[in-house]
Amino acid sequence: MDTFYDLGMSVVRAEGIGAERSLPGIRTVRLDIAEILAHTDPFAPVAPRIFDIEAIGFCPYRCGFCYGPEHAIKGELNAESLADISVLFTSLGTERFVVTGGEPLLRRDIGTIIDNIPQAHSDSCEAPVGVTLSTTGYGLLTKHTGVLESLNKRRVSEVGLPVHGHNSELHNMMMPTINTANDNNQSLFQSIEVLLANQMQYPNILSKLRTVATSLNQNHLHLIPDMLARHGVDLARIAWKVYQVNDFIGPRLDAITTDHWQLGNRRFALVADYLHRHFDSWFQSVDCQPATDSAERYMFLSPRGVLRVIKADNYGNPEEVEVGNLVTDPLQTMEKLTHFDYLPMRNIADSALRQLLVYEQCR
Fold first, then answer.
1. Where are any strands of DSSP class E within the chain?
2. How far is CA 61 from CA 66, 109, 195, in A?
3. Dihedral (C-alpha) 111, 117, 123, 128: value to the nearest 10 degrees?
4. Model pLDDT for residues 140-160, shown as the tens digit of each residue
5. CA-CA distance, 95 to 48, in Å (whole number)?
6. Mind listing the pLDDT tens digit for each residue in 240-249?
7. Which 3 state secondary structure label does DSSP give 318?
8. 99: alpha, beta or left? (left if phi > 0; alpha if psi -120 to 50)
9. Cα(294)–Cα(311) distance, rounded to whole angstroms?
10. Residue of 38, 32, 37, 35 whose CA lies nearest to 47
11. Any idea what the Cα angle at residue 110 is, between residues 104 and 111, rounded to 5°?
């Protein structure tokens, strides 16, 4: 079995294919960072403040609302290639990297991927580079405790965990496994266990709940905080982010563009208002993100190096735009980024101003 992957045999069997053929190869493609920077306008709005690295496509869950990559994608970049990319975008001013997937903890080299992300913008600069691990918690406390220890040593780090319901039944309906007949879905308890471990053993990591609001769970979201508190979670030490289910982007739109999932803008606004009024003082923060706001937030690197931007179309709705492949065509892709019309993306700031701010922190 490929040493870069940590897939249980039940997961492999659930896919209906043999272990030898189910695991894609890891690609090593090194970037010439000096050459790329030499051909990149340092004052153009190239780098995002927040950059999502999709380290893997595969995931043991089948969430209909997920707009991550296709689960069957093969040929992911290895840790060294991803290190080159993180160094490149750090030098251009990126402030935070979100390591996601798929389920990133299925990669056995996930610790190396996170460790390779620069701690600061330069060796002489103390302006920190943040890292967020977006995960289901799959094996985090049993096989990847070193990842938590590494994140805990960083000045800015987060772990994003899914909690979609106040009980396992509702949460599992939102987040089914690929092998529901034989798998005991413990996803909710995985998240709770990581939250408890972070507050007791890894206090420097900010825990962030991630909840997708749909027609299925909209009337039960207000029960989540009390459920967590009953399990001993210190809500004042965690952040809560609630997303409106998104029917604009992602490879699974056919699965969620139904009344079973969809939550209209007006209804989501009412839900968001209720959560803010009742729970802002409970959590470190409560952030409710409408689906249309994703047009201003995200830039993704796919497992194979394809760079995608979520921008607004002519009607203000999110639209996924492929910029290019940062690995096979780095110069051309960076050239496109230099002239890309990001507006009204809040994720992109003027590079000259951002680098000036970094410089001021390093003086």
1. 50-54, 96-100, 120-122, 125-128, 130-134, 157-162, 206-213, 238-244, 285-289, 299-301, 306-312, 318-325
2. 10, 20, 20
3. -100
4. 999 898 999 999 999 999 999
5. 8
6. 999 998 766 5
7. strand
8. beta
9. 8
10. 37
11. 140
Half-sphere exposure (Cβ direction) of 195: Cα atoms closer than 13 Å: 29
Residue 166 confidence (pLDDT): 96
User: How many residues does the structure list for the chain?
Assistant: 363
Q: Give the integer Cα–Cα distance in Å for 271 and 283.
A: 17
Q: 214 by DSSP, 3-state: which? A: coil
- Is the torsion defined by CA of 272, 278, 283, 285 positive or negative? positive
Query: So what's the pLDDT on residue 125?
Result: 66
Q: How many CB atoms lie within 10 A of CB 234?
A: 15
Whether omega for the bond prior to residue 48 falls within 30 degrees of 0, making it cis, is: no
Question: Residue 54: which of 20, 14, 85, 22 has the closest Cα?
Answer: 85
* Percent of the chain at pLDDT exceeding 70: 77
14 has pLDDT over 70? no
SS3 assignment, position 362 = helix
Cis preceding linkage at 139, omega within 30: no
Do residues 131 and 96 make contact, with C-beta atoms less than 8 angstroms apart?
yes
User: Could you tell me if 94 and 42 are in contact, meaning their C-beta atoms sit under 8 angstroms apart?
Assistant: no
* The pLDDT of residue 182 is above 60: no
Given phi > 0 = left and psi -120 to 50 = alpha, else beta, which region is 224?
alpha
Q: For 28-60, b where at least 16 C-beta lie within 10 A, e where not — what string?
A: ebebeeeebeeebeeebbbbbbbbbbbbbbbbb
How far apart are alpha carbons 302 and 82 in whole angstroms?
A: 11
> Which phi and psi (to 5°) does residue 10 adopt?
-65, -35
